[in-house]
Amino acid sequence: MEFARKNVITTSVRGTYSSVGLLLKATLLSTLVAISGMAFAERDTSRDQYRHPIETLAFFGITPQMNVLEISPGGGWYTEILADYVTGNLFAGHYDPQSDRAYYRNSQGKFVAKIEASPELYGNVKMHIFDAAAKKLDAEDSSVDAVVTFRNVHNWMGSNTEASSFELFFDALKPGGILGVVEHRAPAGTDKATMQKSGYMTQDYVIEIARDAGFLFEASSEVNANKKDTANHPKGVWTLPPSLSLGDRDRELYMAIGESDRMTLRFRKPSQ
User: What pLDDT is recorded for position 243?
Assistant: First the structure.
């Protein structure tokens, strides 16, 4: 059954647990405990102070038995965590290996090589093709329990494919499925041209495009907020770590700010 896409207004929840029902609170807490118990002996945890993976996945409500689709995993920073936690299928929606763009082919190839080099960790990871520009996601409709994506929406906005991308996520999710989004956050009222140039997006705009795709907006969390970040830098969000696009120029200043201020949003596909 295909769901008609429409705007649906729900209540925003600030903070990880405030105004959430008791059952959801219990689910998030049990998830938090489960993730906390994982052994990451060799995982680089230096970015956890900015990305808070345990708290973020708990807020999304990701549980081990879910079939999860990670969109645009890049080099696989979150994939390493998800692969060790998810006992269901973990799908990675990466670039098309046959793309005309060398960067896309190389990025996908490096990711696949990483997966294949550690089958004991990544044995449940299955590759999908996600091509925002071609409006393509080769996942079956209503096939996954959760879709997650981390700091990618601004890239799709650069090619004006953010709306169509969210529609693809909607189709891939089962009824009642979760969409979890982390994105660099611009001040409210920032215009679209500035968002495209800076890599920062307003929270209201991300919520709007998700609603337009048919999602219910359930909650927002400040777990990945960074009050030191003004979102106003010479080379946009890429000025900050880990990119540090200015090189050694003002490096100490930007390292002191840390990674970007981020929105953390949870949406749900209607159950019927």
Answer: 97
Q: What pLDDT digit, counting tens, does each position of 106-145 carry?
A: 999 999 999 999 999 999 999 999 999 999 999 999 999 9
Q: Is-contact 147 178, C-beta < 8 A?
A: yes
Contact present, 263 and 154 (Cβ < 8 Å)? no
Give residues with Cβ within 8 angstroms of 115, minimum separation 6. 76, 79, 92, 122, 125, 127
Side chain identity, residue 39: A
Mean pLDDT, residues 1-6:
34
Task: Give which of 178, 172, 210, 174 is closest to 60, Cα–Cα.
Answer: 178
Write the DSSP symbol of residue 201.
Answer: B
Convert the pLDDT of each residue in 205-233 to its tens digit.
Answer: 999 999 999 999 999 999 999 999 999 99
**CB contact set of 139 (below 8 Å; sequence gap of 6+):** 69, 91, 93, 128, 172
Distance CA 225, CA 232 (A): 15
pLDDT one-digit tens code per residue, 241-256? 999 999 999 999 999 9
Q: Are 254 and 239 in contact (CB under 8 A)?
A: yes
Distance CA 221, CA 77 (A): 21
Total count of residues recorded for the chain: 272
pLDDT tier for residue 44 given thresholds of 50, 70 and 90: confident
C-alpha distances out from residue 243 to 41, 96, 131, 259, Å: 26, 24, 23, 9
Q: Where are the domains of the chain?
A: 22-268
Phi-psi region of 15 (alpha: psi -120 to 50; beta: other; left: phi over 0): left
Judge whether residue 13 has pLDDT over 60. no
pTM confidence score: 0.87
CATH superfamily label, 22-268: Vaccinia Virus protein VP39 (3.40.50.150)
